[in-house]
Amino acid sequence: MSEEKTFVPSIVYFMCSWCGSGGAETAAAHHLHYPENVLPSRVNCTGALPAVHILRPLIEGADGVVISGCHPGDCHYDDGNFRARRRIALVKSLLDTLGLEPERVWFRYVAHGEGRRFVDTAAAFNEHIKTLGPNPLKTRSDT
Amino acid sequence: MNANAAVLPTKEGFEPAVIQWLKEALNRNVFEAVLIPVETPAEDSFAYLLIKDPKFLDLASPLPPIMPVQGGKAIGRLTMRGDLNKRVAAIIRPCEARAAIELTKLKQAHLTNLTLITLDCPGVLPLSDYLDDPAAGAARFREAVEQDNRSPMRPTCQICHRFSLAEAPATDLHIGTLGNDDGAAVIVPGSLEGERILAQMGLTEDGDESGNLPEMLERWSTRAEQLTATQTERRSEAHAQLQEQVAGADRLLDIFGSCINCHNCQRVCPVCYCRQCYFESTALKLPPENYLARAASKGALRFAPDTLLFHLGRASHMALSCVSCGACEDACPMDIPVGQVFSLLADGAQEALGYVAGRSVEDALPLVAYEMDELHDVEQAYVEIYREQEVQDA
């Protein structure tokens, strides 16, 4: 087997506690599966996710970070997802300027009832990172 | 915009004229006090002095050759706890004024009763160059200013394109020296308060006896626009070059590899606004097993850890408010081009979110405001790869 096939990415999935993790619950109710190397992590609202918490896994060994929150207009706190979008645009701009592959960060809306969309997002991001290959910062000891 | 500008009488040169003007303003109680850079008694540095007694103004230097303390930081320290109850003038450079405006929006400075007076800035020398020989440094600075030469200045000053306020005066008063010879200067109000002060000081268009004001203003704004254009070009060239040097994990870690984690860049930064720095908090001081686990996954772990996280994380906090002043680079004991890298990051981030740091107190901070219909390229569109299965699930 080639190296690309054996590469199992490590992925952090930040989901908001309303729609994101709701999507995960719906997926569980339907017995839908997502790749086991995706590590789910619940945050109160994507708008409350600090930029540092996206950068830190990328520096410390994750190959990608995916964030999902409520659809526009559906945020439990009214505007958290709009704020998150701005913050993620900021993080992506920083990564882009420094040549650190902004495509390793995904932001997608997943509603509470969209269990299929939740597992699809996890699976599609997993495939996307597999094609991108390992994160070069992962093996650097001097970060 | 320059309708109510005036000529600053500069018979004995530009700096003495500014000082004379401020003295008169203090004597007439136009200002209760003046915040201005003053050379230290040992004559080897400059510091901001909040001057109450006009005699201290004799020692003042409106345009010092170095920037040991960013003026925005000084203003933040003066007004963090609330509004001034008496009128104070601050003589600062444009980047310092922009930092003060950012701090105001971050609720860490208050501009009420504070008159910001800016000057056309020729840049400042790198601190280390100046400290090697202060007298020679001062002479080198004067010479460079006369020749309009930015090459001895700090790298961020060399590529500064917001050194004047000809385009949009964001401060109460701006003193323009460009374009007019022999230290002649125009004084341009940028607010009603500025106009009021000029009137109070008897400096109005009508009071201009020489009748040179329109030509002087014209020469000033033409020169400022011309210089802004060349500097903007220079900046984009320098940034393109710098990006090649830093882009990618390997090159980035080469640049920050010599960092000694002193956090000086954070301490001197005027817009590093967190009251408690996350990177100095206990959030990043973890039990030993955490470090052992990370060493196991990476093969080894550098100590002190989280160097890159500090720089990237700090950028994520302040890049949108960064005014590219270069104070961080002056403070770096390891000569890391941190000011240049941050100005590159700041330009990219501010462009991405359509914001210009320090342009106006009216512009909302980009992470506070939002639009419903924007930034759609950040959203990952959903491709229904399992559409059929979704139907089956239902």
Summarize the structure.
By secondary structure, chain A is α/β, with parallel strands linked by helices.
List keywords for this structure.
heterodimer, A: alpha/beta, B: 394 residues, alpha/beta, seven-stranded mixed sheet, 15 helices
List the helices and strands and how they pair.
The complex is a heterodimer of chains A (143) and B (394).
Chain A: H1 3-6, E1 11-16, H2 20-29, E2 38-43, H3 51-60, E3 64-69, H4 80-97, E4 105-109, H5 115-132
Parallel strand pairs in A: 1-2, 1-3, 3-4
Chain B: E1 6-8, H1 14-27, E2 33-39, E3 46-51, H2 71-79, E4 88-92, H3 94-105, E5 114-119, H4 127-132, H5 134-146, H6 155-158, E6 173-176, E7 185-189, H7 192-200, H8 213-246, H9 249-256, H10 264-268, H11 288-298, H12 307-318, H13 327-331, H14 338-352, H15 387-393
Parallel strand pairs in B: 2-4, 4-5, 5-6
Antiparallel strand pairs in B: 1-7, 2-3, 6-7
Helix pairs in contact in B: 2-3
Descriptive report:
The complex is a heterodimer of chains A (143) and B (394). By secondary structure, chain A is of the alpha/beta class. Helix content of chain A is 42%, strand content 16%. Chain A is built from five helices and four strands, in the order αβαβαβαβα. Chain A has helices at 3-6, 20-29, 51-60, 80-97, 115-132, and strands at 11-16, 38-43, 64-69, 105-109. Chain A has a four-stranded parallel sheet, with helices on both faces. In chain A, strand 3 (64-69), helix 4 and strand 4 (105-109) form a beta-alpha-beta unit. The longest helix of chain A has 18 residues, at 80-97. The model of chain A has no long low-confidence stretch (mean pLDDT 91). Chain B has 394 residues and is of the alpha/beta class. Chain B has 15 helices and seven strands. Chain B has helices at 14-27, 71-79, 94-105, 127-132, 134-146, 155-158, 192-200, 213-246, 249-256, 264-268, 288-298, 307-318, 327-331, 338-352, 387-393, and strands at 6-8, 33-39, 46-51, 88-92, 114-119, 173-176, 185-189. In chain B, strands 1-7-6-5-4-2-3 form a seven-stranded mixed sheet, sandwiched between helices. The model of chain B has no long low-confidence stretch (mean pLDDT 90). Classes of the chains: A alpha/beta (143), B alpha/beta (394). Chains A and B meet through helix 3, helix 4, strand 4 and helix 5 of A and helix 9, helix 11, helix 12, helix 14 and helix 15 of B.
